[in-house]
Amino acid sequence: MKDKFAREISYLRISITEKCNLRCTYCVGDAPAAAQADGGDSAAPAPAQVDGGDSAAPARSDGGGELTLAEIVEITEAAAELGVRKVRITGGEPLVRPDVAEICERLHAIPGIEELTLTTNGIFLKDYAGKLKAAGVSRLNISLDTLKEEKYRQITRCGSLKDVLEGMKAARDAGLLPLKINVVLLKGFNDDEIVSFVELTRREPVEVRFIELMPIGAGIGRAEQYLPGEEVLRKVPELTRQGVSGVACLYRLADGLGQVGLIRPVSSHFCAACNRIRLTSDGHLRPCLHSPEEIDIRYLHGEALREAIREAVLSKPMEHVDFTGGKVSKAARNMNQIGG
Ligand code: SAM
What we know:
Blueprint: E1 11-15, H1 69-81, E2 86-90, H2 100-108, E3 115-120, H3 125-134, E4 139-143, H4 149-156, H5 161-174, E5 180-185, H6 194-203, E6 207-212, H7 230-235, E7 240-245, E8 248-252, E9 259-263, E10 276-279, E11 284-286, E12 295-296, H8 302-314, H9 335-338
Parallel strand pairs: 1-2, 1-10, 2-3, 3-4, 4-5, 5-6, 6-9
Antiparallel strand pairs: 7-8, 8-9, 10-11, 11-12
The site of S-adenosylmethionine has 20 residues, from strand 3, strand 5 and helix 9.
């Protein structure tokens, strides 16, 4: 599927729940955890309701709650028929949804879907890594903004770094490789850890991806925490440019086993390389992360569903909103409600 600007749209990000077991300050804001780990040190996933009854998110007007497994499969089949080749499962936290492995297995089996990946905070990964691999997930992105236990609890307001590190080990053991670690750059919080994160790529074949803090949802009003991606290159000048992978610019240490990615949605527009559309957990297609436009496809089937997917692709804007001068996203939802 080509959009109006001749970009080939072949990537669908599917949020399977708005709920999250963490409450990262810049992501969900002050909302209570919807499906909380019992203090963050539990090995077992907290039971997550699928009806959205205790969700921190406001109820949507359609009142439909989360898409069912069958609805997600039907939409993905239609998208695959139209040319979607890559699917990323996200949320909220996808691993709080009890049928996450079944969702992955069913999507992986859809003809045309060549790559299935998942983004997680890693807390429940210890229990899920093997199941996800068996279900056809090829790689994971794990969100981790600090390598220090106390700071981890501070930014997530309830999580335990130990659980994430155990989850990462389980992912490696299960062969979910290469691991990608997403680090949101936060001035005054983790700028002193940039070097430590880059050092991980010297010793391990991981990709550490530094992401600029976007003024979206709970990220709005945090301009003082924003740190441009260039800061990574200033702190580690020996990083050498490797090329581009999607929206990330890649760098490497001369003797590094892994790579460093810079994702700069604020300081540099990467929209020309955007090949994705998003599906929210309540069945809305979003042509662009930062636009308010949503197309409700929940109760569409057959040709009407396909037509709505084409419409979403054709309504992708050329670029997302320009964030200079204090301008903010027009998204009208928090990141956990859209799917990062
Ligand atoms: N729970 C999963 C996780 O933690 O990876 C998936 C959902 S989370 C919304 C996806 C990603 O969005 C995380 O890496 C998170 O740090 C990032 N994110 C959330 N709010 C953001 C913001 N305002 N700017 C940049 N990244 C943000």
